[in-house]
Design brief:
The protein is 53% helix and 20% strand. It is of the alpha+beta class and 1024 residues long. The relative contact order is 0.12.
């Protein structure tokens, strides 16, 4: 250590070159390091999507979902299976253990699907395996509007032009299409005419399908050339399709004789509302690892180029861009960091009373920050709110050791000593032990954070890395670079430090402390009792704080959800949504807003939510700067309540529900905290509703005023017409169930039998009945033609003669978890009753089952062990340094005192005990012991000079008080800007650290001297 210090002191040019290299590396890193609001968390999830049009949710559950779940249960690394069965689709979400290789897991999933797929119902689509985070928000949303108002043209341009352009951008993941109209060619069959020709609807589909296709018919040669033979059948116009004559069983069959052929719009799966009209939109998702800010720049460039290319036909608008929030959050945090650094520099100048000396100490701040940026870049991390918070916390710590070293240098110079390499090396070496111990304690506290399990390690790992690098760099600077810079730039003329010290002799911090320190040393018992009372009181305040593991970020967004009655037609929902949009336009608080309804087949994310409904419109509204969110929410409630009462947008329905809230925080959803008060009820499909009702009743009885509401999901039902066949009649006539279902499906939903192209636009050809509004009476009178088994005779019947049609209410969604049917109970506590509800659920953990999505619940044992290891490592490190098992225990007394100080300040500021404040308390483990180590080192040094224990500790405390005061103030002012940052976790962390630092510093200065005097006297007695 000594030789290394001497090496750098004698080579100041080398030091300057190293510092220049650090700053140059920082600049280069900033040019290429990604910016993000939070570290990217990639959960090991795989989703399996399987569809079977026409099959209801119950049949999907029993015939598709359960067999696939059984096949997936043996996949290696699987932690949990969740599934949603809806009409026509099965969605299975597989959660794997953290660290699982998703490529290998996806391969195992596909192998299991291949084994079970042959046993699934015929006609089901091959299950699609999709890897990635479920519930991820789009990075950007682009609205596309046709200048002529043709929504079909806008959708085609979005799908075949804009989608391809956006996908080519480096960093783009999925691009999801929303809204717009899709044209298709419909052959509307007249059932009576069709049956009179001897065909049912499904039989006609089989007849026409090969006739409207271009079928390859082989190859031939013409001289030296090879020709391909194609049997043309694909129509090129609606008129050609209508005039098509099909080869019937007896006589030729002309399409125009049995139905009408026309172009129509297909039923919409999704809709997008912007600027009070229905438009088309593209949701752009970011590829994992991509730079979000760069991606947004490229998206804007593509939109600008496309706007120029399609200026006469389309209007393009970037209605949402998440990088705006990222840039604003990063900018605010950088501004806070600069304010904190400036405040620290002014404090150093005020106490050190010398510009040159203050600059030497302040230089540690940019050097540490630059080194942290370089390490973040090399480790593949982004510059996000967590890594910047670590740098911001670090700037309050990196100058501590430099201040102590400079204080020793100035003291020696003020006593008339001339600075030289030997003297500066000795002074630096004299504090190297305590400074190294303080640095190691900080590293010990933050190092386990990097190895937190699961998403917690990803979320807070960047903070820990940047802070550890900053502190280590600050120690290296103070020990090796600072002495060289001080000697190299030292003024050879008589310095004015002695004059300054004499001028402020009677105003120095040491003189201010002296009477209070003497009083504390004379009455240690009284001061100890007072400290104990303060600690107990503050501990009560800490335990009283409500627990909220993660505070959602306060954004400028409001979410409005409109729920329409189940079974409401898509057209009615859209029309009503446009009416609500006009009401929202009358409110001037919004910069913009847009709404979306439904989801396309490729849009997996919303459909995996048990609460997803097609009859729902979600409006995302963004407030102007300076607008009070609560006032706007109250205004919205009044406006929408009045409008909903008088709503006439939906005929035959008036039960429209709406809710207004802030959107769920992305991090809360990833960490599973959005379902902190969600219970799960498992059972059989037949009795699960009764069990859920029993649990709800028990909760209402037990919770009383704590409970606000309990929402059961999925609970949506939809009307259903169920055909119950007459088995005896059907068996006599030889009618099979699939034949009846095929005829009904063709008449109602229609079957796509081929495609055609008109003016460059691909159009599906759908065979469907002639009545767009199918009723129960229509189905009962639906004609069918039956052919007697083994004979050529046919018989005409109506569907009502083959069975009975009943109207029922059935489940629209069926949820399962871990291969059992489930219902979820969302418990909403009364305002301010969150802690009481959490305590109740914790006490009755055997009676009520939580959904167990929270990473804290999943990894609680690991977190508790980590906390114990931090304390144990701190103790063992100090025990090795001081070669004592008692002294570390004494110094660590400041830890609980610091924690109680945090509790008092958290209570005063009204901040909950969340993850940020808990992490701040852990940080105090390292900070609290540093001042005690400094006073002990100074006392031992004076004791070795022959002073009595009381005088040695007293003089050592006074000698180090200026340095301790400066380091405490620099840390405080480095944390203060975080109190006003946009990040809720950073604010709570800063408050916890500030309260604990003030309390632990007071303990070190006023109580620790008396404890050390007793320890030194006891040591002397034992030595004698």
């Amino acid at each position: 250590m000594k030789s290394l210090i001497d090496f750098f002191i004698r080579r100041p040019i080398t030091v300057l070159m190293i510092l220049a290299a650090i700053f140059m590396g920082c600049v280069l890193s900033l040019l290429s390091i990604p910016l993000d609001l939070l570290p990217e968390i990639l959960l090991p999830q795989i989703t399996i999507e399987t569809s079977f049009p026409g099959m209801n949710a119950n049949d999907i559950r029993s015939s598709v979902t359960i067999p696939l779940e059984d096949a997936m249960s043996s996949v290696k690394g699987l932690e949990r299976i969740k599934s949603i069965s809806r009409d026509g689709v099965s969605l299975i979400n597989l959660d794997f253990r953290w660290g699982t290789d998703l490529s290998n897991a996806a391969a195992l999933v596909r192998e299991s699907i291949d084994l079970v797929y042959p046993g699934l119902p015929q006609g089901i689509t091959k299950p699609l395996v999709i890897s990635g985070n479920i519930g991820e928000e789009p990075h950007a949303v682009v609205a596309i509007r046709s200048r002529t108002g043709d929504n079909s043209f806008a959708r085609n341009m979005a799908e075949y032009e804009m989608k391809a352009r956006l996908r080519r951008i480096d960093g783009t993941g999925q691009v999801i299409l929303l809204g717009g109209l899709t044209e298709e060619t419909r052959i509307r069959l007249n059932p009576e005419r069709l049956v009179s020709r001897g065909y049912n609807g499904d039989e006609f589909v089989s007849l026409i399908a090969p006739e409207i296709m271009d079928i390859p018919a082989g190859n031939t040669r013409e001289g030296s050339r090879e020709l391909t033979i194609v049997s043309q059948g694909r129509p090129e116009s609606v008129e050609e399709l209508a005039s098509l004559i099909l080869p019937g069983a007896g006589n030729p069959l002309a399409i125009r004789d049995i139905g009408i052929v026309e172009k129509e719009y297909a039923v919409q799966n999704s809709s997008f509302i912007f600027q009070n009209e229905e438009q088309t939109a593209l949701e752009i998702y970011r590829r994992p690892g991509a730079d979000p800010v760069k991606l947004s720049r490229d998206i804007k460039r593509v939109i600008q180029e496309s706007s120029f290319d399609f200026e006469r036909d389309l209007e393009l608008a970037l209605v949402y861009d998440s990088s705006d929030l990222i840039i604003r959050g990063i900018r605010n945090l950088v501004f806070s960091l600069l304010i904190g650094a400036s405040a620290i520099a002014l404090i150093l100048l005020f106490f050190l009373r010398n510009i040159k000396t203050s600059l030497f100490a302040a230089l540690a701040l940019p050097i540490a920050a630059a080194a942290a940026v370089i390490v973040l870049k090399l480790s593949g991390c982004s510059l996000n709110s967590m890594s910047l918070a670590g740098i911001a916390m670090g700037i309050g710590l990196v100058s501590d050791i430099s201040v102590i070293v400079l204080d020793l240098f100035n003291r020696s110079i003020s006593h008339g000593e001339k600075p030289c390499a030997r003297m500066l090396g000795q002074l630096t070496l004299s504090v190297s032990s305590s400074s190294f111990a303080g640095t190691v304690t900080t590293i010990i506290v933050f190092l386990p954070v990097i190895f937190f399990p699961g998403p917690l390690g990803v979320l807070f790992g960047d903070l820990a890395v940047s802070l550890i690098v900053s502190v280590v760099c600050g120690w290296i600077y103070s020990q090796f670079f600072l002495p060289a810079l001080f000697l190299f730039f030292h003024n050879k003329k008589p310095d004015n430090i002695l004059k300054v010290n004499k001028t402020y002799k009677y105003k120095s911090p040491e003189n201010f402390l002296r009477p209070f320190l003497l009083a504390a040393m004379r009455r240690p018992a009284l001061l100890g009792i007072g400290a104990l009372i303060f600690g107990i009181t503050s501990l009560f305040f800490l335990l009283y704080r409500p627990i909220q593991f993660f505070i959602p970020e306060n954004t400028n967004e409001i979410q409005i959800v409109l729920d329409f009655p189940p079974g409401t037609s898509t057209e009615a929902v859209i029309d009503s949504g446009l009416s609500y949009s006009k009401e929202l336009s009358a409110i001037d608080d919004f910069i913009l807003f847009f709404g979306r309804m439904g989801a396309e087949d490729e849009d997996i994310n919303p459909r995996t939510d048990p609460d997803y409904r097609k009859e729902r419109i979600i409006f995302r509204c963004f407030l102007r700067n300076g607008i009070n969110k609560n006032e706007t929410i109250n205004k919205l409630y009044n406006t929408l309540s009045e409008y909903t009462v008088n709503a006439t947008g939906i005929s035959d329905y008036s039960d429209i529900r709406f809710s207004i809230s802030s959107p769920l925080d992305k991090t809360s959803k990833i960490l599973g905290l959005s379902s902190a008060f969600t219970l799960i009820v498992k059972g059989d499909k037949e009795n699960i509703e009764q069990r859920a009702e029993a649990v709800s009743t028990a909760l209402r009885t037990s919770l009383g005023t704590i409970l606000n509401t309990i929402n059961v999901k999925p609970s949506e039902t939809r009307p259903e017409l169920r055909f119950i066949p007459d088995r005896e009649v059907n068996s006599f006539l030889g009618v099979t169930a699939d034949k009846i279902a095929g005829a009904i499906y063709t008449a109602t939903e229609g079957i796509i039998s081929g495609s055609m192209e008109i003016n460059g636009r691909p159009l599906d050809i759908r065979i469907i009945g002639d009545n767009p509004f199918v009723s129960q009476n229509y189905l009962e009178s639906l004609p069918l033609v039956l052919q007697t088994t083994g004979q050529r005779q046919t018989r005409h019947v109506i569907l009502g003669s083959l069975g009975q049609i009943e109207r029922r209410e059935t489940k629209a969604i069926l949820a399962r978890q871990d291969r059992a049917d489930v219902l979820y109970l969302d418990i909403q506590p009364s305002p301010g009753k969150e802690k009481e509800l959490n305590n109740f659920l914790s006490r009755n953990i055997n009676d009520f089952t939580r959904i167990d999505d929270s990473v804290f619940f999943r990894y609680r044992s690991v977190l508790f062990i980590t906390l114990i290891l931090v304390v144990l490592l701190l103790y063992l490190t100090m025990a090795a340094q001081f070669e004592s098992f008692k002294l570390p225990l004494i110094i660590m007394l400041s830890i609980p005192f610091g924690i109680t100080g945090s509790g008092l300040l958290l209570f005063i500021t009204g901040i909950t005990l969340d993850l940020g404040s808990i992490l701040g308390l852990i940080v105090l483990f390292g900070l609290s012991v540093n001042n005690g180590i400094i006073i002990y080192e100074a006392g031992i040094e004076n004791l070795n000079k022959g002073l009595t224990p009381a005088l040695a500790v007293y003089k050592g405390t006074l000698d180090r008080f200026r340095a301790m005061l400066i380091t405490t103030l620099t840390t405080i002012f480095g944390l203060l800007p975080l109190l006003f940052s946009s990040g809720a976790s950073q604010r709570s962390m800063a408050v916890a650290m500030l309260g604990g630092l003030l309390a632990s510093t007071a303990l070190s200065v006023f109580i620790m001297p008396s404890i050390l005097i007793f320890l030194f006297r006891h040591r002397q007695v034992n030595h004698e």
